[in-house]
Design goal:
With about 210 residues, the protein is α/β, with parallel strands linked by helices. The protein is built from seven helices and seven strands.
Length: about 210
């Protein structure tokens, strides 16, 4: 994973240039999608919790508890997404423990459930999952299994975030499979994460965002 992290760092400028035209909501006509892109994805506010959350992430890394790479920008996006959706229930699957802190801080009143794998989720998992996060430590097969088992539990106002959707060919294929599935609605490809919403009253459409 360290090798992949270095490779990804080297590729960043080329990824950004390739996606340059997909920035700042240009050409997006859906009010919902435009609002999410401009006021959540690209929001620049410095939330008070960012500094202590970054310190906590560094502490976890120094203790060797984070074996997979995720950048601070993506972690802060998780916080903003939860803060926007305000989900009563959050489920985080994967081994990136620092992500849990960002997710929890976005809505402190939410019921939070974390497990490294699908098999480790508790038996009393809520029947409704309002916000599902599958982080980039999960294999493509694990992401697919999580989606198969849990997407039906996400309500109309819910959201699912999948990490590292373009970090491997296999994970990209899983992302594309569920992007086309009738269970999901509007979707956003940010390269580092993919985001699904489930409101069927909105026209199903896919957006690429240069994040």
């Amino acid at each position: 994973m360290l090798v992949m992290s270095k490779m990804l760092t080297l590729k960043r400028p080329f990824i950004w240039l390739r996606r340059f035209r997909h920035r700042c909501g240009y050409g997006v006509h859906s009010p919902f999608a435009f609002n999410l892109i401009t006021n959540v994805i690209y929001e620049k506010n410095k939330y008070y919790c960012y500094k202590p959350l970054a310190a906590e992430a560094r502490k976890l890394k120094s203790k060797g508890k984070r074996s997979y790479s995720i950048n601070t920008k993506t972690q802060q996006l998780l916080f903003r997404l939860v803060n926007s959706v305000q989900p009563p229930t959050i489920v985080h699957i994967g081994s990136i423990k620092s992500s849990s802190a960002y997710l929890k801080s976005g809505h402190t009143a939410a019921r939070f459930v974390q497990a490294d794998t699908l098999a480790q989720l508790p038996a009393d998992l809520p029947s409704q999952i309002d916000f599902l996060h599958i982080d980039s430590s999960c294999s493509a097969a694990e992401v697919d299994a999580c989606c198969t088992a849990l997407l039906a539990s996400i309500p109309q106002k819910g959201c699912c975030v999948i990490g590292g959707i373009r970090y491997s060919t296999a994970t990209k294929k899983v992302w594309q499979k569920w992007m086309a599935d009738e269970q999901t609605g509007i979707s956003f490809d940010l390269y580092d994460v993919g985001i699904f919403f489930f409101d069927k009253q909105k026209i199903k459409q896919h957006y690429t965002v240069n994040f």
